[in-house]
Design a protein that fits this description.
- With 255 residues, the protein is an alpha+beta fold.
- It has nine helices and eleven strands.
- Strands 2, 5, 7, 9, 10 and 11 form a six-stranded mixed sheet that branches.
- It is elongated and about 65 Å long.
Length: 255
């Protein structure tokens, strides 16, 4: 519980400020930079163009998810990467190089490797980590994301690629792609016992002002197929949070 007297509150405030200043000195620069790039994620991830801007290499993952390579696979991949998905000498300014174009546009727009989403934490719980620290688990509920779709033909036009060449052949059974952005919902941080108790007490009634935030980074892509649709599942991992005006680096722990 929080102390009741004014003096104790001042001491706690000073300790918290000192902890926060020390944390800012040791926290990786990316998390501070990422906090500057906030997104309205329900709109951002509803457009496949934005998803490609956030992760240009996803273009390569998507392309290879629907092609059957011909001949020597190592050679085929090399040719596709350099001549279909990458830049090469004979490529005009308006063709090819889609991944490179996305990287340039991404840099121009200032889109970092990390995006920060303002959130309301719905549930906060703790368990013992060691004698001095607690493992704190925070949960939130993302809004429903409308996954964008694009037909295979539209995608091939987007990357200026043919359905078949001497090095690959597109699977004729795949009609479209659907991009499913998955956001980690349970997040763990490690905090000192006293701070854990204070936060747990404060969040017995979680605020609904979206002053807290989670910083996400790309984690991995998985694919699956259903009725002519290739699902591209993009998992984002929480790397940092802000709770009660304090920043914490997340930890990946077995549950």
């Amino acid at each position: 519980m929080f102390p009741n007297n004014h003096g104790s509150r001042q001491i706690l405030k000073i300790r918290t400020c000192l902890t926060f200043l020390i944390f800012l000195l040791i926290m990786p620069a990316y998390s501070r930079a990422a906090n500057e790039y906030r997104i309205e994620y329900t709109k951002f991830f509803a457009e496949y163009e934005n998803i490609f801007l956030f992760r240009p290499n996803l273009v390569r993952d998507v392309f290879f998810s629907i092609v059957e390579l011909k001949g020597n696979q190592k050679t085929a991949r090399k040719v596709i990467n350099s001549q279909v998905l990458g830049c090469h000498t004979n490529t005009s300014i308006n063709q090819g190089c889609r991944i490179d174009q996305l990287r340039l546009e991404r840099k121009k727009l200032g889109i970092p490797n990390y995006v920060t989403i303002p959130v309301n934490f719905m549930r906060v719980s703790t368990r013992v980590f060691n004698k001095r620290k607690k493992r704190m688990t925070l949960q939130w509920n993302p809004e429903i994301l409308q996954p964008p779709t694009i037909s295979v033909d539209e995608f091939l036009s987007y990357v200026t690629a043919a359905r078949e060449s001497r090095h690959y052949k597109v699977d004729p059974n795949i009609i479209e792609f659907q991009f499913n952005t998955l956001l980690e919902r349970k997040i763990d941080i490690i905090v000192e016992n006293e701070l854990a108790a204070n936060l747990l007490d404060l969040y017995q009634s979680p605020p609904a002002d979206k002053q807290d935030a989670i910083t996400f980074a790309f984690d991995f892509v998985s694919t699956s197929e259903r009725f002519g649709t290739r699902d591209i599942n993009i998992q984002l991992r929480a790397v940092a949070i802000r709770i009660n005006q304090q920043r914490f680096k997340t930890v990946q722990l077995k549950r």
